[in-house]
Every structure is written in C-alpha cells, then in structure tokens.
Amino acid sequence: MPETPAIELIRLTKCFGKVTACDCIDMDVRHGEILALLGENGSGKTTLTNMLSGIYQPDAGQILLEGKPVTIRSPRDAIRMGIGMIHQHFKLVDVLSARENILLGQAGLIKTAPEEAADTFGFKVDLDKKIYDMSVSEKQAVEILKVLCRGADKLILDEPTAVLTPQEIRALFDALERMRKECKAVIIITHKLEEVMAVSDRVCVLRKGVNVGTVNTHETNRFLLTEMMVGKPISLDVEHVDMPPGRTLLRVKNLSATDEGGRHLIQDVSFDLKAGEILGVAGVAGSGQKALCELIAGIEKADTGTIHMGETRIDGMSPGDITKQGISMAFIPEDRLGMGLVGGMDMPDNLLIKTYNDQKGFFLSRKAARIEAAEMVERLRIVTPGLHVNIQKLSGGNVQKILLGREINLNPRVLITAYPVRGLDIGASMTIYDMLNEQKRKGVGILFVGEDLDVMLGLCDRIMVLCAGRVTAIVESQFATKALLGMKMAGLVTDKEDEYA
Amino acid sequence: MPKPWVMPHIVQRGDVKPVIAWSYRALAVVFALAMGGVFLALLGYNPILVYSTMLRGALGTPGMQKETLKLTIPLALTSLGVLLAFKMKFWNIGAEGQIAAGAIAASYFAYFQAHLPPAVLLPLMALAAIFFGGLWGLIPAWFKTRFGTNETLFTLMLNYIMFYFITYLREGPWRDPAGGFAAMPRFPKQARLPEVPFPFVGNLHIGWIVLILMVVLVFIYLRFTKHGYELTVVGENVRTARYAGMPVKKIILRTMFLSAGLCGLAGMLQVAGPDRQLTDAVAGGRGFTAVSVVWLARLSPAGCLGVSFLFAAMQKGCSMMQTEYRIPASMSDILQGIILFSVLGAEFFLQYRLTSRKEVVV
Amino acid sequence: MSSFVEQVVAFLYAAILASVPLLYGTLGEILTQKAGNLNLGVEGMMYLGAIAGFLAGFYTDSLVLTILFGMLAGAFGAGMYAFLTVSLKANQNVTGLTLTIFGTGVANFLGEKTKLGVPVDTMFMSARLKSLMSPLDLGWLSDLPIIGTLLFEHSILTYLAVLVGIAMSMYLKRSRMGMNLRAVGENPAAADAMGIPVNAYKYGHILVGGALCGLGGVYVSMVTALGNWQPNIISGQGWIAIALVIFASWKPMRAIMGSLVFGALSVLRLYVSRDVADIPGALFSMLPFVVTCMVLVLSSIRMKRENQQPASCGINYFREER
C-alpha cells in the first residue's frame, strides 16, 4: 500500500484573465522526497506553488495535505498547515534585522529560536544584521530559516539557485539533503537541468500550464527532460560565431562608483571591448553589473575613471549628450518595463523613445514609427493583438523583441545587454541569441551581462567576472570552465581578504 | 473524489470595453446622487424636490445658464492646468495658490497701469497672470527636481501662503481707502473683460472663447507635439525617460510652468471677468475641485470641460437650494465628495472581479 | 516676575494650546502611514471630528459623548478611506483629497444648518461643558511659578495627546504588534507571507489614526474656538499635521516636539510687540506654512534610511498581483 503523500494536487486550475496559467494539474509529493518542478518560464510553476502557499486562490481543483482536502485561504493558513515557501523574490523587510524578520507574525516564537534553527541546519548568519546590509546568499539563508523556524515540514523553493554561485548552490543542496533526512517533503522549482539531475528524486515537468509527466530522476536524462519541457527535440547549444578581433570600440579604465549611502557599486573596473566581439559579464546578482551598464550608458555618474568610445571620452555625459556626439550605443537594461520601455504606451510610441528628437520642429509625427512597428512585428514574429495595444499586455518574450528590435534598428556600434533572456522561454531565448550573433557578424561590439554560465561559455568570446564590484578575472571562454568562473564569482583565489571565503 | 470547492476571491480582470467602463462610472454617479438624496431625506427634505430645484437653479433660465457657465470657465481652465501636471504624475494640488498668484499679477496692472489702452492692458494682464502663476508653480517643481521634495504637500502649503498674501494686500498696501472695511478697489472699466455673445444665453465674458481655445491647444499639445510625448513618458516611467536621454528636469519644470500658468490665467479671467476686483475668494476651492474634475475626466481635456460644467451646475444649483430651502450651499462639496467616493469605488469593479466556485473542466 | 518673563511664559503656554490639534493629527497620520497608507484626508477627518464633537456637546452637554462622537466621526471618515483604498484599491492621493473635500463640506454644512435651526446667538456650549475641557486646576502644582502654568494647567485633551504620543512610541518600538505593523508598511507582501493579516492591520491602524484626527478636531472646536462654531474652523491645520509627519521622521516623540514648534509659530503674532517688529498680521499667519515648506525641503535633503517614509506608503497591496 503506498504511503499517503504529503501534498497531493488534483486538477488544480488557475486563470489570469484569458490566460490559463495552470490547467488541471495533478501532482503529489511524499515525505522524505525532493521533487523537482521543471518547466520553462511561463509554464506555470510559480503560479502552482503560489496556490499552495495561499497567495493565489485556485479557480478550480483540490489540494490534499496528508490525504485530507484543505482550503488554503491565505499564507497564514499555509503556515499553519506546515507549508513553507521560499520565494524567488525574497519576501523580507529591508529595514528590519534577520531576527526580526524571522519573528514577524509568529507570536509564539521565542527570541532565540532563530539561533537553534541556524545551528541545526548549518546556516551561518548574523541574525542581528539588517537585511539591506546583506548579500543575496545571506538573504536566502534568512528566508529558509524563516520557514524552518515555523516548523514547516513541506518546503517549496522557487528558483533558489538563480542568484547563487556554484559553491553556494552546493551548500544549499547539502541543506536540502539534511531536510530530506528529516523526512520533510521538498519541492524545488528550477529550469536548470543539471540541478534537477543532481538533487531531485522525481521530476514533474510543466509545459504551458499542463503537467506533461512525472518521472523518476534516475530513469531520465537531460535530453528527454528538455524534450518534455519544450515539446519538441531542441538543441540547447548556443551557436558561437568566430570573428577576427576588430579594433577597440569601448575602453573602460579604472572606473569606480558609489551609491547614495557611500557603498561601492563598482571599484576600479577596466576592460576593452572590440568590434565583432561578445564580452560576457558574469557574477552573482548585485555584483555591480547594473551599475557598470548604467555608467557606460550615461545614466549614472562615475566617481573616478574614464570611459572612451572610440576616441571620444563619454564618462560624465548624459544619454542625451552621448547621442548628440553621434555615438550610436544601444542599451538593453535588465528590467525592460522598469527602464527602456514604457509599459503604458503602444508599440509605435515605444519605438520613438530614442529617436523622437531627430524630428524637426515642434510637432511629432508617428507615421514612420507605425510603419517601423508593423515591419518589426512581421520580421521578429512578435505576437500582439494589434499595434496600438499597450505593450505591458504582451508577454515577456515579445516585449524583449520590441526592445532589442528598436535598439538594433539604431545601427549601434556597441550593444550593451543585461540579462536579455531573463523570463523568456527557450524558443524566444534562442531567437535573442541569434539576433546578437547577427550583430556580432556586422562588427558590433557586444557587452553581454548574463547569469547562465553554460550559455555564456558558448556565446561569448571573453568573460569578465565581477565580484562585489571588482573585476576578479577576464578569461577567454574557450579556456574557461564553470568551476573556474564560479570560484572567481565568489572572489576566491585572487582576493585574499574576501568576505565570502 | 470529493467535490471541489473554491472560496470566493478577488481576481484581476482583463480589458473592459470603454462603453462598459463609462456606464459603470455613470452608474456610480447615479448611486452617489441617490446617497445624497438619502442624506437630504434624513434631514427632512424631499430629495426629488430639492434636486429639481437644483436643476432649475443651474439651467432653468438663460440667466442661470449664464451663471453656471461663468462658474465653468475658471474651473475648466484650472482643470486643464492640473491635467498637464497629473499627466506627468506630478501631484499639483497647488492650483488654488497659482490661481491667486495669477490674479494678483493681473490685478497689479489693473490697479496701477490702468492708463494703458484696453487692447494692451488686457493681454498684458493675461500674460502677467500666466507668468506669475507659472513662477509660483515652478518653485515646488524646482525643489522636486533638485532634492526630490514632496510636491503634494509643498504645492499645498503654497496655497495658504498665497491666500494670506492676498489678505495682506487687502489689509495693507492695496486696501481701498474709500471703503469702510478692508477690501480692494474695483477694477477700472478698461481692465474688465469684454463680453461677447454665447449661443442661447446672451453676452458672456470673453473667457469662454479663451477656454475653448485652451481645450483645443492642450489636446493638441498632449497628442501631437514632442513636448506632450516627453511629459507623458516622464509620467509613465521616469527611468525610461532618463535612459532615452530626455532632459527630465527641464521637462518637469516646463510642464509645471505651463500647468501653473493655465491656473494663473484662470485667476486673471476671474478677477477681470465676474469678480471685477481682487478678493481673497478668487480661487474659492476651485483648485481642489479641479483635482476631482481631472480625475473624473480620466485626464481628457474635453472631459474636463464636460465634468467642469456638471460641477459648476451642481454648485450653482446648490446656491439656489440655499435661497429656496435654506439648505447650506456647502451641500455641493458633500455631493462632490460622495460622487468621487463612489466613482473611486466603481473603478475597483473595472479592474477586479469577485469569483467563487467554478466547475472543474473535465 | 518681570513682565518679560510673564510674556514668554504666556507665549509658551499659548504655543502648547495651539500645538495640541497638530499633535493629534500628526500622531493619527503617523499610525496611518506606518500601515503603508498615505491619508491626505487629515484635514477632512479633523473637520468631521470638530463638528461631531461640537454637535454632541451642544445637544447632550456630555464630555464623554463629545469626545466619543468626535473620535467616531474621525474614524468614520478614515473608514471610508480604508474601505476605498484597502478593500477597493482606489488611488490613495485622490481618496484622501476627496475625504478632505467631503469632511470640510459636511462640517460646514452641518454647522450652518444647526445655526439656521436655533435662535440667533445661542449656538455655543454650556459653561459647564466648557469648563470641563478648559485647563485643569491641579492645586499647588498649578500654582508653582512658571512650571505650574506650563505643565500643570492644561485641558485633559492636552494631557491625553501627550500620553497617546508616548504610548504610540512604545507600541511602535517595543511591541510585537508594532514590529508587525512596520513590516506591513514596509513590505506588505513579506508581512503577508509571514501570516500577518495585512488588511486587518491596515484597517485597524487607519481607523485609530482617524479617531485621533477626530479628537484633534474636537479640540479645535471645543478648546481653541471655545465652543463657538465657525465656518472653516480647521483652516489648514490638517495639512500642517501631514507635513509634521515628515518633520518628525515618523516618530511620535519627535511629533510632540514638532507640533510645539508649529504651535509656537502660529501664535507668534500675538506675542511680538509692534515695537520690536511691525509685521502685518497676514504675514504672521503665513509663517507656519512658510516654515513647513522649508521643513519639507530640508527633510528631502537629509536622507537617512531609518528615517524615511514606510516603503509601501501610497501603494495599495493586492495579494494576487502579478
């Protein structure tokens, strides 16, 4: 007789407007098991787990805990039922300390409970440190401690590895092993196949909101899983274009910048970018990638150091000044609707953002932009109900195509992209890589800030590693390995006074 | 298998057709009037009688229509000003003070430069009003761009400062020596707005032509000019504006100057039109009402005209109510509040809906 | 005692009197903003409290009912605001502003209506009720020189305001609920994920905040105006209270200091003799508002992480937001 599953889902369904994010999903997790929930971006993984943690209410279907049907009305209910969720976007209060965050809303919890949990599961965290002073991995430890302190025996981790170095991921997996031994039921959401193979007992694959199958991890392999996930056999290899190195387009020297609070964003960064080259920038999230891009694009100001574009010195210039110099630089920021595009405007208006001022006179003509938009929809196969729909209504992949399409239409000499495939499915990601390679062939110099080291090793010519705002390595990708990059990302070897060591 | 049960919960809904959206809002207004009726009934009045008196008072005769229009002009013009700032998501609650600033500047010319011919004097008054109203609006805008100072409270404080400044003028330097109590003199004839015929109601001061012109200009400015495009981008997403190399500070300053300038112009039309003198009631709460107008008009210039007319009719109707039933005219503020509350509430049902159990699709 | 010292004591005393409604408004708004809601309706809630307290006092002649109705009226205004912004996710700025328009309208309406309904010159409080709210006489304490006047000769509403300030400070700093409230205001999604009932917290604190504003209104109509109703009785004090929240960096103890400063500014006119500076009265009335502007600018220049507005302030929370 099979034991009662810790969590069982029966035909769980959730719609957002006309989109069905989860469509009649059946799933179960047992105690002492790690279940990997695998699926592309937008396949419904997060929606599914949000229903378990009481954030979303299902439109239909049934959740059973320990064999009993339950209704989870709120996160409070979920906590009471022993479900602990570690969200991808940390749910922490910045101005409170780690301890305060753990004690929030837990009237029965004594003040020393966090210490005990930290000891039991081997986390080293300064519990009286404020969250805003913490690194990403520390924050994640606090998130996990929060859940463990409440005695949760069903844990859900949403993309826990996205922000960690390979070494930190190893440590996290060790912690998961310990939880499995404690007979907890663990669901880990990820889209990285290596991690699925490394840590899970079973894999449940979602595609477009549908459960396409649950398999035992040791009976499957990467290729089978990919096929299940994408729905067709697909090559995961990113094409590498070989080009003879061109002349130097962008030269950054000894660049340093601090934030308003006086903390270093980047320190003493120097590198060159050549024509027809893709230079990757790797690093744990928040290592200074954003600042670096925004400094080059002229959005932020550096404290010291220089940036040359060809012969022209551009540091200290605003984006407007840089354009006036006749320098053509394109910038694809990481949060597209936060910067780069205007979600509340339609496609033609979004295409005009960088070029509207080239028009003469007081009035603005949208005719050319409408034609450009129609042409772009056709060429990049952008799925949209119409040209005059606000772009925030489009899917992430389509929004990214609009942004990239617009920037490429400016015929840039230098292209800066930050996480250009974040949130996109594999098909859309491949299109984006192809577009970048095409620019490379045209002799454009590309700065590629990425997070997936496998992709970067394939796509980039060289990879620069940032750690806590400093360059810890610039290596040729053909000689680099993931392990090496991971060590450099953690600041090991080269930096003796490293705080993570 | 146990029968699935789903508790009722709120979900976001997709796009709502404009027709449906507007009928929801209209329904909300009807609901608000009904609530106002209940309030009147509780006080022992017959709401239907009171409302019909209101309607008669606002639109009953050409003379009353004219009075309603006179109230519409400054309100609508102020709303247009506020609209420009709101489109940029700049919370200009300072229209009240900007109206006063414009009125003071215009009055200076009326009191001290009246020797000029009307053809010079009136345009000069209008320009001065726009300029000084605009300058008064530039102060909070400048601090906003320089230090990120909270503009909502800043613009509000400037209202009171301007109000007391008029009081100061009235009690001191500009006091009418001939008058018994502290008041400012009436404008000389050449500083009063000429009257031109308005269809069906007879002569009305020229402000109505200025207003129509401004509605068209603001519409074109927002829809078809680079400035309008820029301020919309700044309002929607200031980070993208900066990213695109837009001169964000300049745009904020320019837009606030225009916004406050329009309010200043409304002040000039008020003193040189119906008031014929500077009083401390020149703004008379219009700056606040304009905020409601713009919100209800969903930031559309033509909508501002329509909503302003309705609010002016309500105000005029309420003063009729006061004379006939001795119901205080502040009833119009109460009605305005209830209408806004219920339209604000109605917006919820345009964005969300309540769902509960739904059969499992098998 | 020299006449100069007498003058200074009288000035400080008047400053304390004038600061009380500001303090109530500020404390109410601090509580509201700590829950992540920016309520621009303080002025309106003070009006509601002022008229409700006045009418209750006028018709019932009871101190308890005066205070109770004042608080209930303030809480009623806050309740509408809370329903619209918390449950119906309406824009907080517009809702607050509407509350001000509505509250002002209701107060002026009912005030005038009552005046029309009673014989001329009879619309004021009974001497008994007035004396209950007027400064207490604490025997020998009140007879102490200088201190006696400044500290021990006040209305019970004044002492209550200070007590509320101190209690609120303890509540926010020391209690578990205060910490939970902080989480709600800073990051409602995080608070929600920890099982804190976000909406209940918001409703509760907005309502109590509104009741405090209503009490401020009661003070204005019963103590400041000596129980005589006047139209436009609050005249901007609610707005100054909102600005004071920034001045006080969201800290109740600082709010006590801040409201004293602004109380002093608003009565300065009466205590600067013409010989020292011949400044017209209107310009004096302007002073608190000018200083408020300067405070706004200064506090926007010095930015410190701990001293800022709760991060979610002004943004509505919807759990299922995508």
Structure, described:
The complex is a heterotrimer of chains A (501), B (362) and C (322). By secondary structure, chain A is an alpha/beta fold. Chain A contains 16 helices and 20 strands. Chain A has 3 domains: 7-230, P-loop containing nucleotide triphosphate hydrolases (Rossmann fold), CATH 3.40.50.300; 241-328 and 411-501, Rossmann fold, CATH 3.40.50.300; 344-409, no CATH class. Mean pLDDT of chain A is 88; it is low at 494-501. Chain B is built from 13 helices and 4 strands. Chain B is globular. In chain B, the strands form 2 sheets. Chain B has a two-stranded antiparallel ribbon with strand order 1-4. Chain B has a two-stranded antiparallel ribbon with strand order 2-3. The longest helix of chain C has 32 residues, at 3-34. In chain C, 53% of the residues are buried. Chain C has a single domain (3-307), classed as ABC transporter involved in vitamin B12 uptake, BtuC (Orthogonal Bundle), CATH 1.10.3470. Helix content of chain C is 73%, strand content 0%. The interface between B and C is large, with 50 and 50 residues.
Q: What is the fold's blueprint, element by element?
A:
The complex is a heterotrimer of chains A (501), B (362) and C (322).
Chain A: E1 7-16, E2 19-29, E3 33-39, H1 45-52, E4 60-65, E5 68-70, H2 75-80, E6 83-86, H3 98-103, H4 113-121, H5 136-149, E7 154-158, H6 166-181, E8 185-190, H7 193-199, E9 202-207, E10 210-216, H8 222-230, E11 248-258, E12 264-274, E13 278-282, H9 289-296, E14 304-309, E15 312-313, H10 319-324, E16 329-332, H11 347-351, H12 367-379, H13 396-409, E17 414-418, H14 426-441, E18 445-449, H15 453-459, E19 462-467, E20 470-476, H16 482-489
Parallel strand pairs in A: 3-8, 3-9, 6-7, 7-8, 13-18, 13-19, 16-17, 17-18
Antiparallel strand pairs in A: 1-2, 1-4, 4-5, 9-10, 11-12, 11-14, 14-15, 19-20
Chain B: E1 9-12, H1 18-42, H2 47-59, H3 62-87, H4 95-112, H5 118-147, H6 151-171, E2 195-198, E3 202-205, H7 207-224, H8 226-236, H9 238-243, H10 248-275, H11 286-296, H12 301-325, H13 331-351, E4 352-355
Antiparallel strand pairs in B: 1-4, 2-3
Chain C: H1 3-34, H2 42-60, H3 63-87, H4 92-117, H5 127-133, H6 140-143, H7 147-152, H8 156-174, H9 176-186, H10 188-193, H11 198-224, H12 237-247, H13 252-271, H14 281-301
Helix pairs in contact in C: 1-8, 1-11, 1-12, 1-13, 2-3, 2-4, 2-11, 2-12, 3-4, 3-11, 8-9, 8-13, 12-13, 12-14, 13-14
